[in-house]
Amino acid sequence: MANAALKTPVACDFHASPPIDLVYLARQTLGDRDLEIELLSMFERQAGQIVDQLENPGQSAAFRRDLAHTLCGSARAIGANGVAAVARDYENGVSRGPGPEVEERRRLREMVAEARAAIKDLLGDR
After folding, report:
1. I want to staple 21 with a disulfide (CB 3.0 to 4.6 A). Which of 1, 17, 52, 79 is the partner?
2. What's residue 114's pLDDT?
């Protein structure tokens, strides 16, 4: 057997993948389109509220971690994998201090905005 070079995985570029994995969402909802719409609508509202709350400097670090954890779980449930990954990074970054947290919050805000825009495009005027 020839020596095969192992490829080192590179960091995922979530901007290269769709903001919402619709195949995953369809599997989670067993193809129930009404349920998909309900979940996407709830996520779109909740994600916006959480990002707004994270911008409030008066929130404790524990509260910000809890918000990020909630957002991560919600994002995973609908297949918003980029949001989930960045929310997890933010959750971990809160304990590393203000510098890393600010950068992670900026990335999270961008990913959430991208996912929310995709959801609004999917749902139209519903």
Report:
1. 79
2. 96
Q: Using CA atoms in the order 63, 68, 71, 77, what is the torsion angle rounded to 10 degrees?
A: -120
- The percent of the chain in helix, strand and coil, each rounded to the nearest 5, is 75, 0, 25
Domains of the chain: 18-123 (1.20.120.160)
Which amino acid makes up residue 35? L
Greater model confidence, 112 or 124: 112
**Those residues with Cβ within 8 angstroms of residue 69's Cβ, 6 or more apart along the chain or in another chain:** 87, 91
pLDDT of 96 higher than 90: no
